Amino acid sequence: MFKEWASHFDTPIGRCGLAWTEAGVTGVQLPESDPEQTVARITRHGADLVKEADVPPEIAEVITALKTFLSGGPTSFDGLRLDMDRHSAFDRAAYDALRKVGWGKTVTYGELAATIGRPNGAQAIGLAMGRNSWPVIVPCHRVLGANGWMGGFSAPGGLLTKKELLAREGVYPDGGQLTLFE
Q1: Lowest model confidence (mean pLDDT) among 46-55, 139-148, 154-163, 171-180
Q2: How many C-beta neighbours within 10 Å does residue 90 have?
Q3: Active centre residues (catalytic)
Q4: Which runs of consecutive H residues, i.e. helices, occur in the chain?
Q5: Distance from C-alpha of 27 to C-alpha of 24, rounded to nearest angstrom
Q6: Is the separation of the CB atoms in 69 and 168 below 8 Å?
Q7: 117-129, pLDDT tens digit by residue?
Q8: Most confident option among 85-94, 143-152, 160-169
């Protein structure tokens, strides 16, 4: 296991966090209700906190890309190294396949399961998405249930956050209508 670092930074949706090792990015933290909670969550595995101004150039590029994405600008995280040591082989396969789903596109839980050779694994895909350490980079907000059902979203803000992330990409699974029940 590599030494881990983390930093936090302001974005259009609030204070986010990013953690990394020499092997790659270990986590993204979307804003909690309190910025101190965001910092606590991104450092929970013992990462040393680094000021945003002192992050390595490769990490500074990731932070810039996250800010662009959260501003609604088309962004690709292709080629970004992720340190997936904390995840199972199944989760890794799901995350690798999901990273190929581009900006403004969606995939169902079942389609993603079939892509990795588990045609009956939609529920397992849902669980893997709940363990996703890299929301936005591994775009679990792009995974929907059959017939456009929103499914779940474990990042802060839950389904409201998922809808907002999809809207930034011009995707409105419910036609952009207010829904009182999911």
Answers
A1: 171-180
A2: 16
A3: 140
A4: 35-42, 57-70, 89-98, 109-115, 122-130, 158-168
A5: 9
A6: yes
A7: 999 999 999 999 9
A8: 85-94
Q: What was the pLDDT predicted at 182? A: 45
Q: What's the pTM?
A: 0.91
Mean pLDDT of the region 3-23:
96
The dihedral built from the CA positions of residue 95, 82, 77 and 20, taken in this order, carries a sign that is positive
Angle at 73 between CA 93 and CA 144, to 5 degrees: 40
DSSP 89-114: HHHHHHHHHHTTS-TT--EEHHHHHH
Whole-angstrom CA distances from 11 to 42, 65, 95 are: 15, 11, 24
> Rounded to whole angstroms, how far apart are CA atoms 105 and 117?
21
Q: What is the DSSP letter of 148?
A: G
Residue 54: strand, helix, or coil: helix
Tokens of 149: 């059902």
For residues 82 and 24, the answer to whether their CB atoms sit within 8 Å is yes
Check if the beta carbon of residue 162 is closer than 8 Å to that of residue 154.
Answer: no
Pairing of strands 24-29, 14-21: antiparallel
pLDDT of residue 149: 86
d(CA 64, CA 99): 19
- Per DSSP, what are the bridge partners of residue 20? 5, 25
